[in-house]
Amino acid sequence: MSSDQSFVDFIVDQITCRKTITSKKMFGEYAVYADNKVVALICDNKLFVKPTAGGRTFIGEPVEAPAYPGAKLSFLIEDKFEDREWISDLISITEEELPEPKPKKKKVKSADN
Fold first, then answer.
1. Rounded to whole angstroms, how far apart are CA atoms 50 and 112?
2. Which of 8, 13, 14, 28 has a CA positioned 20 to 30 A from the CA of residue 109?
């Protein structure tokens, strides 16, 4: 079951921070970006925030679950996303602690094409 666009839009609209918050459809579900960093996933209309030490401290006792079978554990945010200030603070903390994404390598065209 994939996530509803209306749920994704609601989550993105709830997050207000210094970074630009966007979503991108990936493999039938969605990644939530703060500028160029993936900070969360939305799968089956559930919000999974990438785990960080600061996020764990902020949440207190987070519920951890994989966003999809075989995925690493993330913080499952079940209802607190309705609190705009709380979810915005969590996403800001998460974004600050995550490393910058590695630059993408440019594809080299082969001479055979």
1. 41
2. 28
